[in-house]
Every structure is written in C-alpha cells, then in structure tokens.
Amino acid sequence: MRADRLVAALLLLQARGRTTAAELAEQLEVSVATARRDLEALSAAGIPVYPQPGRGGGWSLLGGARTDLSGLTATEAQALFLLAGPAAATAPQVKSALRKLVRALPGTFHADAEAAADAVVVDPARWGEPNRARPEMVDALQAAVVRRRKVRLTYADRAGQHTERMVDPLGLVDKDDVWYLLAGTAHGQRTFRVDRIRDAVVTDLAAQRPPDFRLPAAWQRVVEEMERRRSLLSATVLVDARFVPVLQSQFGRHCEVLDSVRDGRRRVRLAAPTARTIAEQVAGWGARIEVLEPAAVRAELARIGTELTARYG
C-alpha cells in the first residue's frame, strides 16, 4: 500500500537525514521510479522534502525538519510494535510494514522495537476449540471501507432468509473472534454479522460516509443497545458468597450483587433476554442457587426439572 511506503520513506528520511531514490527503493523493495514518485508525493503534500542534485546528493528534509510522526521516542516505538506485532503473524502486510518501519527507525531503537514485536502472541482459540481463521470476506469488506465503495450484500438473517441490499461500508469490528460490518443503508445505520454474509460484491459506486462518523463511538452505541436487549428481564437470586465470582464470570455485566442476608448468602440480580434464558443458565447450579423472583423464572426451572426427571428419574 502506498500510504505504508510514504510513512516508511518519511521515517527513513528523518532517521538518516538524507537518502537517494535508489537507497529508498532497496529499503522499501520497490523500483527506483516508484521510490522517486513517493519522494515527489511527499514534497507535493507539503512536507519539506527536496532533491539535491550532483555527486553526493539525494533527497533531504529541509533544515532537518521533523513531523509529529518523527517524534517517536523509544517508549512510543515499543508501544507501536507491541500493538502491531501480534497481527504480523496472520497479516503479511503488517509484517512487511513493521519490517520497513524497523529499518527506518534510528539504530538505537531497532533492538527494542524488534523485541516488542515478538513479545506477544495472540491465540484467539478457546481451550478445546480449533483455531478460527479470519473470514476471507473481511479482506474484501476492509478494502471497500478504505476505498469508500458501495457493496452489494447477500445476507442471511437468523431464520436463514436471504436478502440483497446495497450498503455503504463504514467499518469492521472483531468482537471475541466474531466479525461485524457497520454500514449505512436506505433505512439508516445497520450492523451485519460477517459470517451471515453469503456474498459481497464491491462496486465502483462511491460510498457515502457521514462526516461525523467515528467507528469506536458507533460501535459503543451498538454494544449498549445489544446489552440492553440482553437484559430485558431480571431475576433476584440467593447464592453462597463463595460462588458469587463464578456467577459474575457466567453473567458478566448482567450480574449485580445487591446485599447480604443473615445466613451468609448474597442477594444477586441476574439479567437476560427472557425468563427461559435465565432458567437455562442457572439450572445447572441445582440447589446452590435459590430464585426468589420473578415467578416466570421459577416456573421455567420447574419445567426443566420435570423434563429431566421424566427422562432420567
């Protein structure tokens, strides 16, 4: 990607002070003509890069000029490589970019930057589960977001019904190894699970992107709405204090400790979309949990108990 090369070229200029197109081409693994065009692009963008002809000449930053990007300290360089390093194992482009950035950094930063890149390994598979590969669809959608091109989606809902729609891709989110596409539609912003997209055709039509759109804020609103839907019904239960951390791990933010009772148990509020959902999640606790209310959850537990007794009793 050209942006990757321009950043690497700028960092190399700031680290060395001067370079030739041939030297830059060797570092970035491109042709001399491409390296020269990149240097000219930096100059055209307003960065004070200028050529000095003749023997011993090359391209330099005017007066040793520096930008915010050049102000990378050793700590900042380590932080950058700590964040990007784990992704390099699965994304060849990231690995290539990191390699180029290492070359462009001042020599005193090289060892720490390379060590930071190899300091963390991210294994997304849970215990007992196979590795889940990144969906191939993500790359095409990511390119559409960057290039701002409309995408024609064939999407399957929960019932398996397929619909086709034209969307303006706004951003992608990886949440617990499940990918989501945030996109603008004729009915407003929508969120699509990538594993339900059966086909995606990137068109040549320009996508519309709201000028005030920010992916982190937009995703936070999606999360808040989803969590609201997941907590439409609450139940009050009693549980031994020693089991509260386990219950909190099971229900996450939908587990709230209210107070203690005289026998040492804790009164806890649990939330989920339906009474049946809560009953199914606490049924495995047996008598360790006592549901005080609502009656709908108690009835669901009784139904589950009757079913189990009929089959195994």
What key attributes describe this structure?
single chain, 313 residues, alpha+beta, five-stranded antiparallel sheet, four-stranded antiparallel sheet, 27% strand
Descriptive report:
This protein has 313 residues and is α+β, with helices and mostly antiparallel strands. The chain has helices spanning 2-16, 21-28, 32-44, 74-88, 92-104, 110-117, 136-147, 215-229, 244-251, 275-282, 295-312; strands spanning 18-19, 49-52, 58-61, 149-156, 162-175, 178-185, 188-193, 197-206, 233-240, 255-260, 265-272, 289-293. A 5-stranded antiparallel β-sheet has the order 7-6-5-4-8. The chain has a 4-stranded antiparallel β-sheet with strand order 10-11-9-12. A 3-stranded antiparallel β-sheet has the order 1-3-2. A hairpin with a 5-residue loop joins strand 2 (49-52) and strand 3. The longest helix is centred in the C-terminal third of the chain and has 18 residues, at 295-312. It starts with a helix and ends with a helix. Mean pLDDT is 82; it is low at 65-70.
